[in-house]
Amino acid sequence: MQQSPIKKRAILGGTFDPIHWGHLGIAYAALEQVGLNQIIWVSDRHKRDPHQQSQVEFEHRQEMVRLAIAPEKAFDLGPPPSEDPKAGYAIVTWQTLQQRYPDSQWYWIIGADAFATLPKWDRAAELVEACEWLVAPRSASDPGLNYPEETPLFREISPLNLQQEPPQLNSTVGTNPSTHLDNTALIKTEEICQQVAIAFKTRQIHLRWQILQSQTLPIASTLLRRHWCDWPKIRTWVPKPVQIYIQTHHLYQNPQYPLPPHSTSLPRL
């Protein structure tokens, strides 16, 4: 019997509260740069971070991801994790997907800040050996830097290459050749990657990684949640089907949260 060809698949995990154009930009950058066959989006059921203000349930977040990625045939919604908090661990996620897609070469799309924590992950050595890591740089001016909105293993990934107007959902998002990475962000991301690689090298583990070549911009789901009601323009940061879903289900309707203390205004797009 002829074996199925090996396909290049990547995992992109997060709370996606809500998903926005930045997440999609990262995914398209990875799709084009690495020549991936498929990106599997995995929503974390449990929001373990006490800083998170949102009360949006997993089912809503999962449905918003489904709506956002529907136009792209290379994107697939991963299976929902079980109610067991340990089901959200990265190693469990990878094992589940490996069983579903056995003929795969695995990649993991991740933000630079989360990548820095990789040596502390549960059974990190197994994951490092199983995947190549695609690291999304984080802008030095990212307003979410001091407001973490990640779970221990699926950090909110910094948005990349958002256009002045909501971009069309196609392979040009996040891969515009006229756009270059902010040099400070690139240097910082390179330093983080080298430090993580050294940490694993001391344990005799070889880490495979590359930096995603896409421009960073200062938006985050935190601002979407806080200002959905009081700043209508911010709604263009999410695809139209997600906008409609949020309005229909009356999500993010309690904008009684201050801006981050180091920010005097919302970022201009």
Describe the structure.
Its EC number is 2.7.7.18. Residues 11-160 form the Cytidyltransferase-like domain. Keywords: ATP-binding, NAD, Nucleotide-binding, Nucleotidyltransferase, Pyridine nucleotide biosynthesis, Transferase. The chain has one domain (7-248): 3-Layer(aba) Sandwich (Rossmann fold), CATH 3.40.50. The protein has 269 residues and is an alpha/beta fold. The protein contains eight helices and six strands. The protein has helices spanning 21-34, 58-69, 90-100, 112-115, 124-130, 183-201, 221-227, 240-248, and strands at residues 7-14, 38-43, 75-77, 104-111, 131-136, 209-211. Helix 2 (58-69) runs antiparallel to helix 8. Helices cover 31% and strands 13% of the residues. It is globular. Strand 1 (7-14), helix 1 and strand 2 (38-43) form a beta-alpha-beta unit. The longest helix is centred in the last third of the chain and has 19 residues, at 183-201. The protein has a six-stranded parallel β-sheet with strand order 3-2-1-4-5-6, with helices on both faces.
Topology:
Blueprint: E1 7-14, H1 21-34, E2 38-43, H2 58-69, E3 75-77, H3 90-100, E4 104-111, H4 112-115, H5 124-130, E5 131-136, H6 183-201, E6 209-211, H7 221-227, H8 240-248
Parallel strand pairs: 1-2, 1-4, 2-3, 4-5, 5-6
Helix pairs in contact: 2-8
Residues in helices, as a percent range: 25-40%
CATH homologous superfamily - what is it?
HUPs
What is the CATH third-level topology name?
A: Rossmann fold
| Continuous helix count | 8
Q: Would you identify the CATH architecture? A: 3-Layer(aba) Sandwich
* CATH C-level: Alpha Beta
* General form: globular
Question: Class by helix and strand content?
Answer: alpha/beta
The Cα radius of gyration reads 18 Å
Low-confidence stretches: 141-179, 257-269
Distance between the termini: 54 Å
Order of SSEs: EHEHEHEHHEHEHH
Number of strands: 6
Number of domains: 1
Main beta-sheet annotation? 6 strands, parallel
Strand order of the largest sheet: 3-2-1-4-5-6
Mean pLDDT: 79
Estimate the strand proportion.
5-15%
